[in-house]
Amino acid sequence: MIFDTSSIFVAVKSKKLRILKNAITSQLAKYELGNIVWKEVYIHKTLNYDEGLKLLQLLMKVVDKMDLAEPDYAETLKTACRYGITFYDAVYAQLAVDHSDVLVTEDNKLKKKICKDINVLSVDKLDN
Q1: Shortest CA distance to 110 belongs to which of 127, 94, 126?
Q2: d(Cα 23, Cα 26) in Å, to the nearest integer?
Q3: Which end of the chain has less Cβ packing within 10 Å, N or C?
Q4: Cβ-count burial of 8 within 10 angstroms (0-12 exposed, 13-18 middle, 19+ buried)?
């Protein structure tokens, strides 16, 4: 399965690390997860800095254990344009296409745009 950052974050926060075993993501995930943690600390203030740093360290360890893959970027641009999604989102969608696999995302707008052509699930639909 291909996991985008929204689902990696939910899996870690929900302590469902088992579902990430043998999962694939993009190197981009580290930067996006860092941004998610920054938002939690700086914008939403749901975590203080030390809590954010601990969460960031855990997330980086999790991504380091995942398989990292990169899509064909020309195809990724086509995917982004075809579905009207960001290039960032298209990276994960294209990985799902390239690997003939399921994309796991919590992004409902993304799901709605690609679900006719790409199999899409969320963390709550996966077995632990």
Answers
A1: 94
A2: 10
A3: C
A4: buried
- The residue with tokens 């380091």 is 64
The DSSP letter of residue 95 is: H
What is the spatial distance between Cα 2 and Cα 26, in angstroms, rounded to a whole number? 9
Give the bridge partners for 103, in sequence order. Answer: 2, 120
How would you write the pLDDT of the chain (128 residues) with one tens digit per residue?
999 999 999 999 999 999 999 999 999 999 999 999 999 999 999 999 999 999 999 999 999 999 999 999 999 999 999 999 999 999 999 999 999 999 999 999 999 999 999 999 999 999 75
- The answer to whether 55 and 33 have CB atoms below 8 angstroms apart is no
